[in-house]
Specification:
This protein has a single domain (2-21, 65-339), classed as Thrombin, subunit H, CATH 2.40.10.120. It is built from one helix and 24 strands. With 341 residues, the protein is mainly beta. It is globular and about 50 Å long.
């Protein structure tokens, strides 16, 4: 049974991407560059300022640009998670999920992936305590990009008890100007092949707030890669992984939960759900298969007018906004999902 958690309290922030400078991806190969192990303190810093209402709104006639990341490229990721030097690699499409506990207290709980304007996906367990408490909480998503930091306010959380995937309805919490482009990842509906290589990416950030309200994020983007060693179309077991999942021969770290699991074509095939803590640090890691959660109706309010004002089925979202590779593999009847391999 699907559960939607209602409006969360507003948070408005201003990030470094608010200066009107657009993020333009250069042509050519995009490579995640592994950070040398000898320099663990060589960490990137991004700063933003958390403000109060009102929420920034684009002027009338503003044209929103939407871009698709092409990540079907080489990477230096190994089976043991390592920090990377270019943690703005995803240009805002990979985000840190942050719970705002007070004006000066923030806590990172996981990672999320931008799928479409105002829509992100993550692992439900990263907000388990907040969902179980039933109280309104302040949740932000922070997406580093080459021009600074995009801040988003989480308005609605939609999840189901049948899997570890949740969808986040977002509204901008930082201004954006001419030339700003929203980047997102495409979804694939195919089943992974045992033996193929997948990449697991996610943030481990430490948000700190000053007395002035400045918000500083220190930490890094971590990446790992490994071969698929198992695919479970229904579930792996009844306790730890009771949902459609992918087993990957690589490690993962706390904070990476909800992060992107990407195939060799640059498509999102799942989100990081669990990792086994092994002595060699090589996992395995389990990803929740994204196809198992495509039968959702989502309340999406931003951008205004695009989604019709009422909950919309995920697969009814325009392909120009939400890119799903080979939608014909999936058929929805009522709330039931039928899959054709």
């Amino acid at each position: 049974m699907e559960r939607s958690h209602g409006d969360l309290e507003d948070d408005v922030g201003r990030g470094g991407a608010a200066d009107g400078v657009g993020a333009t991806l250069k042509d050519g190969t995009r490579i995640l560059t592994r950070m040398p192990a000898a320099t663990p303190d060589d960490r990137s810093l991004l700063r933003g300022e958390v403000l109060g209402a009102p929420r920034p709104r684009p002027p009338d006639g503003y044209q929103l640009s939407v871009g698709l990341l092409n990540l079907a490229t080489a990477t230096e990721a190994l089976s043991i998670p390592a920090g990377v030097t270019n943690w703005t690699h995803f240009e805002g499409a990979l985000m840190s999920v942050i719970v705002m506990e007070s004006v000066h207290s923030y806590r990172q709980v996981g990672t999320a992936v931008m799928l479409a304007p105002g829509l992100a996906v993550s692992a439900a367990h990263v907000l388990h305590d907040e969902l179980e408490s039933g109280t309104n909480v302040r949740v932000l998503c922070a997406g580093p990009r080459s021009t600074g930091l995009d801040m988003w306010a989480v308005k609605t959380i939609t999840n189901a008890v049948s899997d570890d995937i949740m969808y986040l309805s977002l509204e901008p919490a930082s201004p954006f100007g001419d030339g700003w482009c929203l980047f997102r990842l495409p979804i694939t509906t195919r089943q992974p092949d045992v033996g193929e290589n997948l990449h697991v990416v996610g943030f481990r950030l430490h948000p700190d707030a000053s007395d002035r309200g400045d918000l500083t994020f220190s930490g890094n983007l971590f990446a790992a890669a490994g071969k698929v060693t198992g695919f479970y179309e229904e579930k792996r077991d009844s306790v730890m992984i009771p949902f459609p999942a992918i087993e990957i021969a690589c490690g993962s770290l706390g904070g990476m939960s909800g992060g992107a699991v990407i195939d060799e074509f640059g498509h999102l095939i799942g989100v990081t759900s669990a990792g086994l803590d092994t002595e060699d640090g090589e996992g395995p890691t389990y990803a929740a298969w994204i196809v198992g959660a495509l039968n959702r109706r989502l309340p999406l309010g931003w951008p205004q007018g695009i989604y019709g004002g009422t909950p919309i089925h995920l697969l009814d979202i325009d392909q120009k906004l939400l890119v799903v590779d080979d939608r014909s593999r999936v058929r929805i009847e009522g709330d039931e999902l039928f899959y054709r391999n």
